[in-house]
């Protein structure tokens, strides 16, 4: 089987282990992600997928092994990474535009220069006209869109997403999946997308990484090669179902979905 | 309609008070009728005698508030940001917090004299703790995800403080300021009781000695107005500064005067 489709390696994870006291959250994880790839990591809670993402974001130190980006070891937060969390994490005292410009303020990239970029990105996710609103005036889906724009504003090469649509209702979630795909096709970021929804993983990803809990390790990796842009109806195809059942079997065999 | 009932209730209570004071012929030096209080208030305002004392008490209150609130904010920030600072200062802070601060007033008069400084210091002491406690609670309550977000952007600790922790603490800090403002007034009045040459506390005491109870009631009325005014100022500023925090008044751990 040909698996070296990815162009050049951007993120490399080697023999990564993370322990919290006596609990092993991640056990000898190896993963290679190519530039521009959209990789989904699925697994039940407690499989260490969020831990892996936090290590990639430089928020957490590995106990053993290492993760590297562009060939250099990740030993702290980096400016070329954008993170989207499960909740929008907007600052209630900042307007939508100011929230989106937070990375610009922190990294002193120059607001005047970046305002146009922000407006363009807000238009891309359908939030134009809302830039002066406060976060509490937006719906959950709109807030998460603003969070997505904030993660993209400083033009990072990598987008790390930690169950970003987990808190949204099913319909909004599908909408956001379509939008993420569109943005990804337009911007060609490398995306690492953590989710516990098998369907979401197969729909979005070029490659799905399946993890098992306690200790978290990678038990399977599969390529998904549906043509893009994928319509929501791809979920009703037989090939989609085959992928989903293969992942589910793996998950059930190694501790199961809850 | 409701507002009218509210006014009617107040008028009825005053009327009842008036009727009771007159009907049972309660002596004026025990409980004067509201009409006598009104007359005393009018006389005091006309003669200008209140004005001087109001000015002194307000000055003490404001200066004490500025002193105590700034000190409370700074120390609260130090405690919230530095575990080491907290470790060493925690026992001292707890001891002082448990003590009724107004009980220090006699000592403060001895140390700082009968003039303005002793009142300002006493007012400052009393309003110090509510602000310190609320500052600590506010700064510590920063959402973990927001801190993670800032860190993921490679933000420095000072950026995390100025962009996240401090604005996030403002609702709680303003709740503390509202308490501190009223506490400062209490501190100033108590210190005036213990020893002073002017101020509304002094006025109350001298009226007490001369059994001018109606006069005392009129000063109490003025003190209520001052309290309402001070609270109104803080509330108005809070609405402007903490514009995003609708209705919520933040945490109010408060303290003892």
Please provide a written account of the structure:
The complex is a heterodimer of chains A (258) and B (257). Chain A is an alpha/beta fold. In chain A, 33% of the residues lie in helices and 25% in strands. Chain A folds into two domains: 1-80 and 175-258, 3-Layer(aba) Sandwich (Rossmann fold), CATH 3.40.50; 84-155, no CATH class. Chain A has helices at residues 49-56, 96-100, 102-106, 111-124, 140-152, 170-187, 198-204, 238-253, and strands at 9-20, 23-34, 38-42, 64-69, 72-73, 81-84, 158-162, 190-195, 207-212, 217-223. In chain A, the strands form two sheets. Chain A has a six-stranded mixed sheet, sandwiched between helices. In chain A, strands 2-1-4-5 form a four-stranded antiparallel sheet, covered by helices on one side. In chain A, helix 7 crosses helix 8. The model of chain A is unreliable at 1-6 (pLDDT under 50). Chain B has ten helices and no strands. Chain B is globular and about 75 Å long. Chain B has one domain (36-241): MetI-like fold (Orthogonal Bundle), CATH 1.10.3720. Chain B has 257 residues and is mainly α. Helices cover 79% and strands 0% of the residues of chain B. In chain B, helix 2 packs across helix 10, helix 8 (157-194) packs antiparallel against helix 10 and helix 9 (200-209) packs antiparallel against helix 10 (213-241). At the A-B interface, helix 3 of A face helix 7 and helix 8 of B.
């Amino acid at each position: 089987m040909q698996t070296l489709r990815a162009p050049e390696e951007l993120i490399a994870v080697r023999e990564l282990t993370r322990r919290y006291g006596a609990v092993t959250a991640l056990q000898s994880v190896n993963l290679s992600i190519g530039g521009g790839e959209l990789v989904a990591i699925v697994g039940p809670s407690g499989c260490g997928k969020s831990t892996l993402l936090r290590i990639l974001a430089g928020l957490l130190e590995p106990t053993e092994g290492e993760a590297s980006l562009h060939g250099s070891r990740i030993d702290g937060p980096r400016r070329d990474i954008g993170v989207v969390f499960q909740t929008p994490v907007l600052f209630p005292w900042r307007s939508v535009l100011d929230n989106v410009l937070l990375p610009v303020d922190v990294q002193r990239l120059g607001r005047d220069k970046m305002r146009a970029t922000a407006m363009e990105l807000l238009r891309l996710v359908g939030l134009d006209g809302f830039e002066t609103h406060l976060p509490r005036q937006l719906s959950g889906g709109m807030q998460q869109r603003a969070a997505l724009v904030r993660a993209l504003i400083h033009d990072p090469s990598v987008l790390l997403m930690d169950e970003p649509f987990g808190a949204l209702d099913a319909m909004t979630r599908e909408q956001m999946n379509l939008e993420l795909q569109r943005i990804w096709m337009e911007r060609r970021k490398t995306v690492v997308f953590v989710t516990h929804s098998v369907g979401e993983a197969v729909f979005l990803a070029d490659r799905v990484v399946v993890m098992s809990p306690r200790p978290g390790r990678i038990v399977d990796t599969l390529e998904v090669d549906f043509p893009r842009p994928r319509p929501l109806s791809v979920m009703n195809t037989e090939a989609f179902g085959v992928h989903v059942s293969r992942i589910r079997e793996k998950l059930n065999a190694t501790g199961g979905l809850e | 309609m409701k507002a009218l009932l509210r006014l009617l209730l107040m008028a009825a209570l005053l009327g009842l008070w008036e009727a009771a004071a007159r009907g049972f012929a309660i002596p004026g030096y025990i409980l004067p009728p509201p009409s006598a209080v009104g007359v005393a208030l009018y006389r005091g305002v006309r003669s200008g005698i209140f004005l001087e004392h109001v000015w002194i008490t307000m000055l003490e209150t404001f200066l004490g508030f500025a002193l105590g609130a700034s000190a409370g904010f700074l120390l609260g920030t130090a405690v919230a940001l530095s575990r080491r600072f907290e470790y060493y200062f925690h026992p001292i802070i707890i001891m002082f917090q448990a003590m009724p601060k107004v009980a220090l007033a006699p000592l403060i008069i001895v140390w700082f004299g009968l003039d303005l400084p002793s009142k300002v210091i006493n007012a400052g002491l009393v309003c110090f703790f509510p602000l310190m406690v609320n500052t600590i609670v506010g700064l510590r309550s920063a959402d973990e995800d927001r801190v993670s977000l800032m860190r993921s952007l490679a933000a420095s600790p000072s950026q995390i403080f100025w962009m996240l922790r401090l604005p996030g603490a403002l609702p709680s800090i303003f709740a503390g300021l509202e308490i501190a403002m009223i506490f400062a007034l209490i501190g100033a009045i108590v210190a005036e009781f213990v020893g002073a040459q002017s101020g509304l506390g002094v006025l109350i005491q001298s009226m007490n000695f001369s059994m001018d109870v109606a006069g005392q009631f009129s000063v109490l009325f003025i003190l209520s107005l001052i309290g309402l005014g001070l609270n109104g100022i803080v509330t108005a500023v809070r609405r402007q500064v903490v514009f995003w925090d609708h209705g919520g008044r933040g945490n109010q751990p408060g303290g003892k005067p």
